[in-house]
Amino acid sequence: MKKIIKFTLKALFLIVFLGVVFIQYLKSDWNKAIDESDLNNIKTAIANAKPLPPEFLKVYKSIYPITTTNGIIYNRFTEQYDTKCPCNEISLMLHSFYKNNSTSNNYVLSWKLEKQVTQEQCLNYYLQNVDFVYNNKGVYEASNYYFQKELSELNFEQMATLIIMIDNPSLYNPKRRPELIKKRIKEIIRINKP
């Protein structure tokens, strides 16, 4: 019986050790599963993205606290879905970059992006490339289309509307389903009250 327990513990330790080594390989520069020129192009585009208004970022972070790729993975295991990782959101948007599904996926691209750019830079890029339906790409176009205002001129509810739309712009469309937006905004206000 002792031999079986000892063997099981050794096997379990070996599996965990190999898992950690494999994850470190995926994060490393040795993993060439994502084309370097594509990766450099996206890093440049992220770094050059126009910064969002500070008030908009504040509202976004109050609705979706920002975490890292590791934080998102941990939160998924613990079934918490209230945080966002902007670098991971970009990697989900850019799934065509992956050459090999066993050594590249959205987490691998996200880890690689996190080495070069900040989560806030990723958020700036991501929010300027999200599809808001009706041929509106990004929060600046969506702000003008839905509210006829510049993004920096929006009030809390209008900013929250755009942020809510990011998850499902067809469902949370203020032109088609304003009652859903109002309900979500009430929940957000209730949760964020001091």
Summed up:
This protein is mostly helical and 194 residues long. Helix content is 63%, strand content 0%.
Polypeptide structure, described:
By secondary structure, the chain is mainly α. Helix content is 63%, strand content 0%. It contains 10 helices and no strands. Helix 3 crosses helix 9 (156-167), helix 5 (86-93) packs across helix 7 (119-127) and helix 9 crosses helix 10. The termini are far apart. The mean pLDDT is 83.
Shape: globular
Low-confidence stretches: none
Quote the average pLDDT. Answer: 83
> How many β strands by DSSP?
0
Note the main sheet: none
Beta-sheet strand percentage?
under 5%
Order of helices and strands: HHHHHHHHHH
- Secondary structure tally, helices: 10
**Fraction of helical residues:** 55-70%
Structural class: mainly alpha
Distance between the termini: 57 Å
**Radius of gyration over C-alpha positions, nearest whole angstrom:** 20 Å
In terms of topology, how is this protein built?
Layout: H1 2-27, H2 36-47, H3 54-63, H4 69-77, H5 86-93, H6 106-116, H7 119-127, H8 138-147, H9 156-167, H10 178-192
